[in-house]
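Re: the request from the purification team.
They wanted to know what the chain is likely to look like in 3D before they choose a buffer screen. I agreed to run a prediction and write the result into the notebook, where they can find it.
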Amino acid sequence: MQHNENIFLTGFMGSGKTTIGKKLAKSLRCDFVDLDDYIEKKERLTIQTLFENFGEATFRKIEQTCLNELLSLDSVGVVSLGGGTICYENNLEKIKKSGTLIYLELPAVTLMQRLEKSMNKRPLLKNLKGEELLTFINNKLSERQNFYNKAHITISGLNLTAQMLQQKIIDQKK
């Protein structure tokens, strides 16, 4: 498959955007960028520190600036977006104009199981467990669902492989 278009992966925290994104970029022989990693390198602070010290609104402004930098490049490759990136300002429209937006969809219970294993790096989930965490995930998912539903492609993140995702992209182009 010739790759000359950007691919953006969106979905809730824990949906596998970074993991599948790296594999997809490797199989497409293109670059991979995790937006959160890009922000951390540029700001020289962790996402958690940005949230704790400056709040979500400031973080979203920084996120948008970094996204705009990536979108201004001729080609980025495969980009793993933050779970809320497409929900702010006009990010969704800009991303969709710049490439293919793919929503990795997972049930809330699966997300909860995955997130309980990686809580320490997720500022929005601090101190949430069990039912509280599940309620938080369900609330955020319903807030973001209208945005996620506007992706070019929606695919289940359960047992997803880079090959399956690549085929879905090829099929969508037909």
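For the purification team: The two ends are 13 Å apart (CA to CA).
Please add any questions underneath this entry.
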